[in-house]
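User: Sequence for Peptidase S1 domain-containing protein below. Tokens please.
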Amino acid sequence: MIWLVTLLACFGLICAEEPFNHNVHNGRVIGGHDSKPNTWKWQVSLQHDSYNDNYFYHICGGSIIDAFHVMTAAHCVLSMDPTEYRVVVGEYNLYEYDGSEQFIRVDRIVVHPGWNGDLANGNDIAILRLADPVYNNGYVAIANLPYPGETLPHGFTCTITGWGLIDFEGNVPTVLQEAPLDVVEHSVCSQYDWWGSVALNTMVCAGGDGIISGCQGDSGGPLSCYTNGAWRVHGVVSYGPAGMCNQYKKPTVFTRVSSFLDWMYSVMNLA
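Assistant: Structure tokens for Peptidase S1 domain-containing protein:
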């Protein structure tokens, strides 16, 4: 459910969330490959119960940031009623019970106060407080986070993970996908023939080679980068281009985690 930036008349861009086709085929995060089980332990599947019938379906990714909190994208919050959501941690195959999963209901949703529904305005981040804590069963881990204000150099290779669309036909994978994405620094990503003015300093651009990208269903999930001796979640999947997700000079855009740490910690410290 990667949202795609809303502009006037939505010219060339998808302007609303659309449910994606749940046909199951073996495939890839676009241009990626199956991840190894038990690798990206902070990855979360955010799931929604649309009809209050206790049937949950994957809508977005997320990251475990402490035992009681998950970080995701604000645009993944379809309703502020926490009873409509659950998170699944320790997940690998969405369509099989692997024995590693923990299914946890959401107790509270906090969306960044600067989020106004316009992806070009940024602030696409939300924190979910869980009804019960994540416990260490060997298949989960709390994500390491970057330092405040930390940025990554142009060309630095990170990894996107998720269960998002694997092609333009709307096919989704059964198991967690991963793909390498090279960071595109802000001075490049904000050029008119890249993302222009909708690429903000509070965002991370990565990809744009026309081959590898995130896509719908990856939203809210992590951009994991190996920095300062550890894998750290530097980005939250926010938006990409309308139509085919892997377009040249239209990299996947992430909320820059290092720009929001003070707000995140204030939310996590609430009673």
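The longest helix spans residues 261-268.
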